[in-house]
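Budget justification aside, the reviewers requested a transparent look at the raw inputs and outputs of the sequence design task funded under Objective 1. We therefore reproduce one unedited record. The lines immediately below are the structure tokens for a 310-residue chain.
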């Protein structure tokens, strides 16, 4: 399947830069980023590129090259979905503030709402791609919503069909554009080989095929969360070593340099500090949700690693 049109639901930190790079590297694909926030869309369309709603070094140049050519920002959600061969779901997934899982579980209301809108507006066959960071098996919920609309439109000769993929982001603030243009890996999870290869074909225009990893849906969802947890554990571990250094007279920077020189360990994420913050720490809550609802005993390590972060 050749992808000609892409719609991304969500013009935030992940959706905007990701779609800008795809449009830049795939000039034959029309990419439309949609959002219900008019002010945000106006900022993406501002002639002054210094006023983009997301600041990342190099993003202004990428947007400047393709905006108005094959990169568009709009609040017209329904026609963008209807015209799309592929729809990315890149909406916010904040931590729940009430109910079961409050303070830990992800609030999936926006993912569910966007999936319902895709189900209502899509035409023909549409590949739906999870881009937001989500608890494992969220794709089941997305699939259930889409399956309710499966087959609609048969009377017009173009029944609705859907394939769901997981394609998590691995961006770091300050290096999002290099992370997208020269990724360590691109992860695509799904159970529809044709859909997987269609998305791989998009990334394959600038990413070597050996860096495009293909898995099942659940492995892709869990790999993103596990990567976050492993990075958090490294920071947690070096902070624990820092406390030991203070007690023994050792220098934590020298210890970190010494162990980081080991190729099996590496030097990244070995900077001791006051804590671990940003959205990545919040995403660890998704592992807690997996522990709560699937394998409590096998999720204990997530608690042990994250409990020392604060």
């Amino acid at each position: 399947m050749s992808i000609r049109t892409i719609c991304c639901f969500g013009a935030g930190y992940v959706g905007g830069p990701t779609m800008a790079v795809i449009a830049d590297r795939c000039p034959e694909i029309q990419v439309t980023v949609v959002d219900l926030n008019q002010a945000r869309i106006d900022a993406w369309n501002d002639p002054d590129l210094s006023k983009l709603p997301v600041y990342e070094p190099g993003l202004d140049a990428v947007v400047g090259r393709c905006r108005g050519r094959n990169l568009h920002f709009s609040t017209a959600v329904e026609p963008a979905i209807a015209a799309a061969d592929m729809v990315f779901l890149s909406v916010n997934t904040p931590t729940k503030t009430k109910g079961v899982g409050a303070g830990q579980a992800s609030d999936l209301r926006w993912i569910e709402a966007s999936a319902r809108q895709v189900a209502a507006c899509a035409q023909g066959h549409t590949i739906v791609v999870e881009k937001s960071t989500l608890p494992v098996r969220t794709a089941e919920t997305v699939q259930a919503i889409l399956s309710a609309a499966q087959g609609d439109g048969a009377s017009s000769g173009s029944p609705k069909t859907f394939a769901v993929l997981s394609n998590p982001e691995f961006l770091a603030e300050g290096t999002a554009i290099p992370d997208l243009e020269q990724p360590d890996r691109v992860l695509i999870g799904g159970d529809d080989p044709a859909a997987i290869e269609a998305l791989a074909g998009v990334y394959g225009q600038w990413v070597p095929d050996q860096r495009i990893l293909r898995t099942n849906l659940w492995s892709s969802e869990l790999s993103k969360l596990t990567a976050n947890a492993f990075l958090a554990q490294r920071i947690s571990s070096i902070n624990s070593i820092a406390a030991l250094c203070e007690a023994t007279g050792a220098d934590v920077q020298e210890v970190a340099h010494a162990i980081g020189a080991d190729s099996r360990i590496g030097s990244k994420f070995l900077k001791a500090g006051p804590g671990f913050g940003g959205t990545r720490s919040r995403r660890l809550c998704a592992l807690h949700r997996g522990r709560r609802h699937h394998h409590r005993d096998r999720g204990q390590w997530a608690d042990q690693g994250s409990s020392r972060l604060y």
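Confidence is low (pLDDT under 50) at residues 306-310. The beta strands are 5-9, 30-34, 71-74, 86-89, 125-130, 161-166, 186-190, 212-215. Computational costs for records of this kind are itemized in the attached budget.
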